[in-house]
Protein: Amino acid ABC transporter permease
Organism: Vulcanibacillus modesticaldus
Amino acid sequence: MQLRGEQYMKNNKQLITIPFWRDNRIIPILLQMLFVIIVFSAGFYFFSNAIAGLDRIGIKLGFSFLKNPASFSIGESLIEYSPSDSYGRAIVVGILNTIKVSIIGIFFASILGTFIGIARISNNWLAKQFASLYIEIIRNTPLLVQIFIWYFAVFLELPKVKESIKLPGGIYLSNRGTAIPWFEANPSLYLWIIFFIIGILLAIISWKVKLKAQISSGKRKYPLFWSIGSFFLALIVAFFVTRQAPVNIVYPTLGKFNFQGGYIITPEFSAILVGLVLYTATYIGEIVRGGILSVSKGQIEAAKALGLKNSTTLRLVIFPQAIRVIIPPVTSQYLNLAKNSSLAVAIGYPDLVSVGGTVLNQTGRAVEMITVMILVYLAMSLFTSFIMNMFNKHTQLVER
C-alpha cells in the first residue's frame, strides 16, 4: 500500500508540472533579463556606432587630449590657472566652480526656505502674505529668465568702478563685481586650526557630560554654556600661544582699473547664486510648511499647556518632528539646485558645462566631454544623497 501511495503521488506531481514559460515565479525574472539584454544591446549599438563615426573622421576615443595645453583663459578660478595649463586642469577649475556655487547655494537656500516656510503659517498677516506672494511669483517664473534679470538688469546696471556704491564695512558695489573685505592667512593659521578642532571636541564632550548629568540629577547644568565656554577656552589658549590672530582682514581699495585687495564677487557668480537661491528657496519653503503642518495638533496644544512660548514650541517640539518629513523632499531640491547650476553657461560663469563646452569645441571630443559631465554631476548627486540619507537616518524615530 505504501509503494502504491508513493507511485500515485509521483504520477500526480508529473501531471501538475507547469511549463517554466507559464510559471508566475519565472515570468518576472525572464522579463527582467530580457529588459537588461535589450538595454545593453541598445547601448552597445549606439556606442559602436559612435566609435565607427569617430574612426571615419580620424578621431580615436580616449582621454589623452586632457594633457594638451588648453590655450584659453578662465575668468574665475579657485585654483591657480593659466592658458598654458592642460585641458584637465581647466576641467578641474570648472568642477570646483560648480561645487562652489552649489554648496553656497544650498546653504543660503536652506536658510531662506526655512524662514519662508515658517512665515507661510505665521499669525503675522504681513509676513504670511509676503511669503505667499514671493513663492507664487518666483516659483512660476522660469529660472533662466530670473538669472537673466539678475545679471543684465541688476548687476550689470550697477555704477562703474570709479562711481562704486560704498556700503558699511568696506563693501563696494559696481558693474565689475562686489568687492568685500577678505582674509589673509598668518603663519600661525595651522596651529589655530589644531586648537579649533580641539575646541570643537571639548565642546562636544562637555555638552554630553553636562547633559547626562542634567538628565540624571534633574537639576539644570547649563550644557550649552559649558559647551560654548570650552570652545572659546581653546581659542583663548591658541591666542596666548601664537600671540596673533589666525588671519588678517584685507580691505579692498580702488586701483587704476579695478579694486585691489579683498575679494571680488563677479557679476556672473552673483547672478547665478541669487537666482538659484531665490528659486530653490520657494520649493524648500513649501516643503518646510508641509512638514510643520504634518505635526499633530495635540503636540502643539500640549506645549501650550506647559506654558512654552511659540518660538520655544517651534524649536523644541514642532521642528524636531517635522524634520523627519522635510529631509527627503529637500534632498531632491538640493540635487535640483546642483543640476540647475549648469544654467550658468548662459551668462558666462565658468562652471563645468561652460568650460567643458569650450574644451569640446576646441578638441571635438564630444563623447569624452559629455561622459565627464555626466559622471561629475552623477558623483555630486550621489554624494549629496549619501550625506542627506545619513542625516535622515540620524533623525528617524527608533522603534522598539
Observations:
- The chain has a mean pLDDT of 86.
- DSSP finds twelve helices and eight strands in the chain.
- Strands lie at 165-167, 171-174, 177-180, 182-185, 247-250, 253-254, 259-260, 263-265.
